[in-house]
TrEMBL record, chain A:
Keywords: Cell membrane, Membrane, Transmembrane, Transmembrane helix, Transport. This is Glycerol-3-phosphate ABC transporter permease. The chain crosses the membrane at residues 9-35, 71-95, 102-126, 138-156, 177-199, 236-256. It is found in: Cell membrane. Gene3D superfamilies: MetI-like. Residues 67-257 form the ABC transmembrane type-1 domain. GO terms for cellular component: plasma membrane. CDD domains: TM_PBP2 (cd06261). One of its GO terms (biological process) is transmembrane transport.
UniProtKB/TrEMBL annotation, chain B:
Keywords: ATP-binding, Cell membrane, Membrane, Nucleotide-binding, Translocase, Transport. This is Glycerol-3-phosphate ABC transporter ATP-binding protein. One of its GO terms (molecular function) is ABC-type transporter activity. Residues 4-235 form the ABC transporter domain. It comes from Oceanobacillus indicireducens.
From TrEMBL, chain C:
Belongs to the binding-protein-dependent transport system permease family. It holds the Pfam family BPD_transp_1. PANTHER family: ABC TRANSPORTER PERMEASE PROTEIN, INNER MEMBRANE ABC TRANSPORTER PERMEASE PROTEIN YCJO. GO terms for biological process: transmembrane transport. The lineage of its organism: Bacteria, Bacillati, Bacillota, Bacilli, Bacillales. Keywords: Cell membrane, Membrane, Transmembrane, Transmembrane helix, Transport. Its main location: membrane. This is Glycerol-3-phosphate ABC transporter permease.
């Protein structure tokens, strides 16, 4: 199957124009982060490029600390989600017990409860636990994840039941089978889910806004908001530098895992 | 050791319909026992109950004279080979073979010793570092066998292990499995839906249909003296030719499907006098007629040349019968050919119950003349 | 001999034991299943089910600033909510916002997915570009658009000026602000929606297209008769997710407009946030949260009920 040249040209034109439009805001931010304030104010093309904005962003704000916090929080959430989801998915696929289907239905139902609808008592719980401004307060509420359980369940179901049976005959227990067979065999979907979990945790906004009051555990997203509110009037270059720092890790992750993510998410969503 | 007894074993998944019904069976030590039947007849279920992978609804299962109904698979001291091989895709051949020994915490030295022996025996020594997806179908099959061999369990269960292989490889593996079993002296319970496999491999065969035992016996017994119509038509290829038979005492004739008339000598032939009789005759017993012994002339509707033999199909009433003639015969479709049908080669079945009334006179077993 | 007799005696005893063994095994299976599920169940209970129940409970009370209940007021929070012009405005804005964002997001993403599904050289690059907005956080995206919407320096107004039109007060004009938030949101959504739709397109069996080619079907005919119908389960999913996301919008508003001007972008989650964490009126905020929950539940339900019928499953 070959595409006629005429149509090819049309497609490339469409692809390039759309690509430019979609990417323009990001591109603009990148460019501005290297431009001097004067160039930005006058709206001219950059006359000189420098890292000044980055230096100042890091100098004026504990950005490094925020980045580290975000990294820790995202990694912990990611791991927590992977562990809890895979354990639950294992039970739903490989174990047979009374009430399993009912429980699965309950898990699915939790997807319909928006976090925002229960955010008030959640905040109070974290406060009463003394978890404001702590890593647990920022991570633990997100460990249990219906979508992740669902996605991994779809994937585990493709593992032949005979693998479990062969291991039963060999005398291997469930937990060991989960660790030594299921997890390695399903590592691609675990990776997908991990990337997805990391992305969403890194980009979390409302919850860290509520539960962080000082720089100790503040995430980079909230840091960016602070940077923006304080610098708004004058220094767009610095703000954009901050924004670029925020998006770089996730963009890299996305560029690396785009095709896997697409496959994994489609599978979880649709099968 | 390694002897299995099934006493009144039944299985039901939905508590209504029995998938297996009152199975009574005893499998001897060192025996190659084949479970054969059409798909859905309950073979896998029975095998999995022996393995402990499936609950036993009622009845008693004994292995080596011990009741094991309640024991988990690992305590039954057996190994199993699955239809899809159940190889762990992320482990190498070596790790796959040693998987069970690791789980059972056999010590490393012993593991290596057995690994080397088994790999040697199965011709896998060169492949130990490969992953399953880098192996051909036959090699995967061999790894699955090796896993079973290395366990040194006295009892081995196999569920259609050859059905994913092509015909040629299947023939070769049949022989290999058979030789392996004899060499290691293990008791084998082997499930297949393929009657040729059953006939060629089994010391004894059990035919299962719809959850009920049809017949248990040596392959040749099943072939010569099928206990009922189901076994008669299931065992043997081409399948046994059948027809409704009516005995006319006045004319001393047996009329098959209102079409084929057989003369009967009432003195010699003891034809069963049942109201509804179905007769069966093997394809190789529909001999080519000679000038002296031709009993019928039939019109050939299909010819299959197999090289060493020729299959001729013709109509008998509503049925199509097949004759198997040794050698090559130059017969055209539509041609009329003489055949010789002898009463003593007929099996008689009760049409109502399907049970055998009288077998054909035993197939003449030929003796090997040793010089 | 003696061994034999004991064996015989044991048989009936072991018969009875089977039932017990089975029961024990069932118990064991159950507790094993629970063990695997326990972490999730506990966390769901603490951070989802209990808070949901608590929200409903709180919605019938007045509270102090710490969130403790003070006076039971019955349905009053709800009555106040539905008679408050600010909240009614908030509901209206929210529904308008959903109406703006969902169809446009889907149309744009579908277009991108269709053109990115061609087998052309370098297509991977374009796919990465189109999915890139998924990797951009609310905070960063809002900052980008804050500049784009800037009244004097913002590229959008510069562009308008360049073609001789008057600049727009994107974030300060009551008739434009909600639209500006919608544009930001659509842009942010494109990445994820595109990725899912592309996955849906790629899972369509290529033999369908091949047989259509043999029949001589044109590009748009195939698009209409094969692609869209076969994609409908994916579309269905994407629509549901986009709607739910739209109802949960928060970050864009917090950075771009803080609900203004004159509450025109005070969408429901922002309204809850303000009521609870700025005004410390947890009771009435909870009533709003309950409403949000019901709306989303209803949306999902309606989607399933009406969407599914039109959906074509393979
Ligand atoms: N897990 C199960 N649940 C319900 N019915 C089953 C299950 N496994 C098998 N069956 C039914 O039991 C019967 C026998 O199945 P099986 O033992 O797999 O047959 P075979 O191996 O001879 O093809 C079939 O009718 C099948 O539908
Ligand atoms: Mg089977």
């Amino acid at each position: 199957m070959t595409i006629p040249t005429g149509r090819k040209v049309i497609f490339y034109i469409l692809l390039i124009i759309s690509g430019f439009l979609v990417f323009a805001p990001t591109l603009m931010a990148f460019a501005m982060s290297f431009m001097s304030n004067k160039d930005i104010m006058t709206g001219s093309l950059p006359t000189s490029l420098s890292f000044d904005n980055y230096v100042r962003a890091f100098g004026q704000f504990p950005l490094l600390k925020y980045l580290l916090n975000s990294l820790i929080i995202s990694l912990v959430i990611m791991l927590g989600q992977l562990i809890l989801s895979s354990l639950a998915a294992y039970a739903f696929v490989f174990l047979e017990f009374k009430g399993r289907d009912l429980l699965f239905f309950v898990f699915i139902a939790t997807m319909m409860v928006p976090f925002e609808a229960s955010i008030i008592p959640n905040f109070h719980i974290i406060r009463d636990l003394g978890w404001i401004d702590t890593y647990p307060g920022l991570t633990v509420p997100f460990f249990a994840m219906a979508f992740g359980t669902f996605l991994l369940r779809q994937n585990f179901k493709q593992i032949p039941k005979e693998l479990r049976e062969a291991s039963q005959i060999a005398g291997m227990g469930d937990f060991k089978f989960y660790l030594t067979v299921v997890l390695p065999v399903a590592r691609t979907s675990l990776l997908t889910l991990g990337v997805y979990g990391f992305l969403t945790s890194w980009n979390m906004y409302l919850w860290p806004l509520l539960t962080t009051t000082n720089d100790n555990v503040r995430t980079v997203q909230i840091g960016l908001k602070q940077l923006q509110t304080q610098e708004q009037l004058n220094d767009w270059g610095v703000i954009m530098a901050g924004a670029v720092i925020v998006v770089i890790p996730t963009l890299i992750l996305l560029f690396l895992g785009q095709s896997k993510l697409q496959k994994g998410l489609t599978e979880g969503a649709l099968k | 050791m390694g002897q299995i007894d099934l006493v009144d074993i039944s299985k039901s998944y939905d508590k209504q319909k029995n998938v297996l019904d009152e199975i009574n069976l005893s499998i001897e030590e060192g025996e190659f026992f084949v479970l054969v039947g059409p798909s859905g007849s309950g073979k896998s279920t029975l095998l999995r109950m022996i393995a402990g992978l499936e609950d036993i609804t009622s009845g008693t299962l004994k292995i080596s004279n011990e009741v094991v109904n309640h024991l988990p698979p690992k305590d039954r001291n057996l190994s199993m080979v699955f239809q899809n091989y159940a190889l762990y895709p992320h482990l190498s051949v070596e790790q796959n073979i040693l998987f069970g020994l690791n789980a059972k915490k056999v010590d490393k030295e012993e593991q290596q010793k057995r690994l080397i022996e088994t790999a040697e025996m199965m011709g896998l020594s060169e492949l130990l570092k490969r992953k399953p997806k880098e192996l051909s179908g036959g090699q995967r099959q061999r790894v699955a066998l090796a896993r079973s061999v290395v366990s040194e369990a006295p009892l081995c269960l196999m569920d259609e292990p050859l059905s994913n292989l092509d015909a040629k490889l299947r023939g070769q593996m049949r022989m290999e499995i058979r030789r392996l079993q004899k060499r290691l002296g293990m008791t084998m319970v082997y499930v297949t839906h393929d009657q040729v496999e059953a006939m060629t491999m089994g010391d004894r065969i059990m035919v299962l249909n719809d959850g009920k035992i049809q017949q248990v016996g040596k392959p040749i017994t099943l072939y010569n003296e099928p206990a009922n119509l189901f076994v008669a038509s299931f065992i043997g290829s081409p399948k046994m030719n059948m027809g409704k038979a009516v005995f006319h005492a006045d004319r001393n004739q047996l009329v098959i499907d209102d079409a084929l008339h057989l003369e009967i000598d009432p003195v010699i032939n003891n034809v069963p006098r049942y109201p509804n009789v179905t007769i069966g005759i093997r394809a190789e017993h529909l001999y080519p007629g000679t000038a002296e012994n031709t009993t019928h002339v039939v019109e050939v509707i299909n010819v299959e040349q197999l090289g060493n033999e020729t299959l001729l199909a013709f109509e008998v009433g509503a049925e199509v019968w097949t004759a198997k003639w040794p050698g090559q015969w130059d017969v055209q479709v539509g041609e009329k050919v003489p055949v010789h049908i002898a009463i003593e080669n007929l099996c008689f079945f009760d049409s109502d119950t399907g049970l055998l009334i009288k077998p054909a006179r035993a197939g003449k077993q030929q003796e090997v003349v040793t010089a | 001999m003696s061994m034999n007799s004991t064996a015989i005696q044991q048989t009936p005893k072991s018969q009875i034991n089977f039932e017990q063994v089975k029961k024990k095994q069932r118990m064991k299976n159950f507790s094993k299943g629970m063990l695997f599920l326990l972490p999730s169940i506990i966390l769901f209970s603490v951070f989802l089910f209990y808070p949901l129940a608590r929200t409903i409970y709180l919605s019938f009370f007045l509270t102090d600033a710490a969130g403790a209940t003070t006076v039971f007021v019955g349905w009053e929070n709800y009555v106040t909510m539905f008679t408050s012009p600010i909240f009614l405005q908030s509901m209206k804005s929210t529904f308008l916002f959903v109406l703006y964002t969902v169809p446009i997001t889907i149309i744009i993403s579908l277009f991108l997915a269709v053109i990115a599904n061609e087998k052309l050289k370098g297509i991977g690059f374009f796919r990465t570009i189109y999915s890139s907005t998924m990797g951009i956080s609310v905070a960063a995206a809002s900052v980008f658009w804050l500049y784009l919407f800037h009244p004097s320096m913002g590229p959008l107004n510069l562009l308008l000026n360049a073609i001789g039109a008057e600049g727009i007060g994107w974030l300060t004009d009551t008739s434009w602000a909600l639209f500006a938030i919608a544009i930001t949101t659509i842009w942010m959504n494109i990445g994820f929606t595109f990725l899912i739709l592309l996955g849906g397109l790629q899972s369509i069996d290529s033999s369908l297209y091949e047989s259509a080619d043999i029949d001589g079907a044109g590009y748009f005919y195939k698009l209409r008769r094969i692609t869209i119908p076969m994609l409908s389960p994916t579309l269905f999913f994407v629509v549901t997710v986009t709607i739910i996301n739209a109802f949960q919008t928060f970050g864009q508003i917090d950075i771009l407009t803080q609900g203004g001007p004159v509450n025109s972008t005070n969408l429901v989650v922002y309204s809850i946030y303000r009521e609870a964490f700025v005004n410390y009126k947890f009771g009435s905020a909870s009533a709003q949260a309950v409403l949000l929950f019901i709306i989303i539940l209803l949306m999902t339900f309606l989607q399933f009920k009406f969407g599914e019928r039109k959906v074509h499953y393979q």
